[in-house]
Amino acid sequence: MAEDTGLRSILITGSGSGIGRATARRLAAPGVGLTIHALSNREGCERTKREVEAKGAEARIVLGDLADGAFARELVDRAAEGFGGLDVLIANAGFPVERTWEELDRETMEHVNKVVALGFWEMAEAAIPHLKKAKDGRVVTIGTLNVHVHRPGFLSYPASAAAKAGLEALTRTLAMHLSPHRVCVNCVAPGLIRNDADAPDAFEDVIAQVPLGRLGTVDEAAAMIAFLAGPDASYVTNQVIHVNGGIC
Q: The whole model's pTM is what?
């Protein structure tokens, strides 16, 4: 049984870089306990930890592979044990599989689905008992534009899109499952985002298709995630919210 620490306990997967780190920064405040996760990027997680602690939050780092179902559940358990429960689960971890249909193989398809969709399901199963007890319980998953835009001349990552489509479906069914307990569950689907690893001209060939005419930033995506994770989003659930410059 986790001892109540009085902190708002937030778990953010994939928070050693990019949107995950930006979200952690936005949610960091006195009275918040953040569990920072990555597959193996300890250096990035340490940086996130320093940044959130500078804003008054408490933080812990847990590294591991969400493709391992046992670890996915353990991650939730460790977050709950560390901060006296779990109030917010943000499923951000994922990776683009930049392969065309012709380049795909079964191993790739299985791996990305294990990390993204099955990994989330395992975490959700472990988190549900904690979320039911939480005040202002929240789940936010991070989808992708690629689930919704399929046309010639645009980025096509079928393996990633399939896994994220599964994540999106799980998000919406979980929203219905937890709605009697006043837990709000939503998905944010970012568009073309310049993350930590992107060169300035990344996606230059498709930027012209974005009505706002530019890439988004990790902070712009994180702003929506942080809103949905907070108390002001108490009447928002079962939604897929696009942050994509108007492309769809």
A: 0.94
